[in-house]
Design goal:
The chain is an all-alpha fold. The protein has a domain of about 140 residues: Serine Threonine Protein Phosphatase 5, Tetratricopeptide repeat (Alpha Horseshoe). It contains 16 helices and two strands.
């Protein structure tokens, strides 16, 4: 099952139905690559790894919602950029003082949102979810879409009060209507999940498209899986590939892996093996076990890059440590010399040691 996690709050994931499950396996031929634009054969070739489950798209790495106040000042709001500028430079106490003046004297919604952000994350002031909730509520009532999103995430997580999913849904809907991409993405997941809201795949796809068009890599990746499997939209591999490309350009690791596979197999996009391998290398270095496994196959078999079994063993071992074992690779690498095996294992230990979080 495919897991999509919400942005802005550490909660469980939304699972796609098995019919929408995207397969994640490069199927390199045993000898020569297939002609351009020919999709990989369904039957298992000689050098084929088992299908690995795709990890969830990574949520924003913040324990609490992190709205982004607008940096652009308006003629009647000359100090908004000063508040935001102080925040961006890490001058949180200055941002707090400036925002407090703007909020109290001018009822400035952006300043209220900033105060909510600072209280929610304990930046420049002691963390206080109750005060964060209050400032987000004031800004939300004043029509600030980012405050609506942040407040919805707090209501879902129960920060600053009790869990209130009904209120969160209304806030997400209002923020999405005002063009907040993170709100549209999270609301799409609720329609996909079918627990808080009745499942509506078409509506979920519409909201994902709204967020994807606004540049959300998470939404671009999720919508690509919809197009790849025909979930809530007609199946369209070309649209899926374009969305994966856009998300991968924004450094979405899961999109990088899937786009690499699309490039390798020529699925919805012209076949480009060198570009595919380069993306796999990038994603492998970003600690994607699936990319590490696929890259190990390429290097072990020479199906897309020169054979390098030492490097292949390195990535195979790293992926195996992350739970992505591969018996086929064990067999392919079984004939390595003791010296080369020692080099590969040492490289793997060094990588794992340098990347332990």
């Amino acid at each position: 099952m495919k897991c999509l996690r919400p942005i802005g709050v550490a909660l469980g994931c939304t699972m796609l139905a098995s019919g929408a499950m995207a397969q994640l396996s490069i199927t390199p031929p045993a000898q020569t690559p297939p002609p351009a634009k020919k999709e990989a054969p369904k039957e298992k070739p000689k050098v084929h790894a088992p299908v690995a489950k795709k990890p969830a798209p990574k949520p924003a790495a913040a324990p609490t919602p992190t709205p982004t106040p607008s940096p652009t000042a308006t003629p009647d709001d000359p100090n908004v950029d000063l508040v935001y500028g102080a925040y961006q430079r890490g001058m949180y106490k200055t941002a707090f003082d400036l925002a407090t003046v703007r909020a109290q004297n001018n009822n400035d919604a952006k300043a209220m949102t900033m105060l909510g952000e600072l209280y929610a994350n304990g930046l420049g002031v002691k963390r206080d979810y109750v005060k964060a909730d209050d400032w987000y509520k004031r800004a939300s009532d004043a029509g600030d879409r980012e405050a609506m999103f942040a407040l919805a995430m707090m209501r879902i997580a129960g920060r600053g009060g009790t869990v209130d999913k009904d209120s969160a849904v209304k806030l997400l809907a209002s923020a999405a209507k005002l063009g907040e991409p993170k709100a549209a993405y999270n609301l799409a997941l609720l329609y996909l999940d079918g627990q808080t809201l009745p499942q509506d795949l078409k509506r979920s796809a519409e909201l994902l498209r709204m967020a994807a068009d606004a540049g959300s890599p998470e939404a671009q990746y999720a919508l690509a899986t919809f197009y790849k499997e025909g979930t809530g939209v007609p199946k369209d591999l070309e649209k899926a590939a374009r969305l994966l490309q856009a998300a991968s350009l924004a450094d979405n690791v899961d999109a990088e892996v899937e786009y690499a596979i699309a490039l390798y197999n020529g699925a919805g996009t012209p076949r480009n093996v060198p570009a595919a391998v380069a993306l796999l290398r990038k994603a492998a270095r970003q600690n994607s076990p699936i990319a590490q496994n696929r890259l190990a196959h390429v290097l072990a078999t020479g199906a897309g890059a020169p054979v390098d079994k030492v490097e292949a063993l390195k990535w195979h071992t790293v992926a195996k440590t992350a739970g992505k074992g591969d018996p086929d690779l064990d067999d392919i690498l079984a004939d390595m010399s003791p010296e080369d095996r020692a080099k590969g294992e040492a490289a793997a230990r060094k990588w794992i040691g340098n990347n332990v979080k």
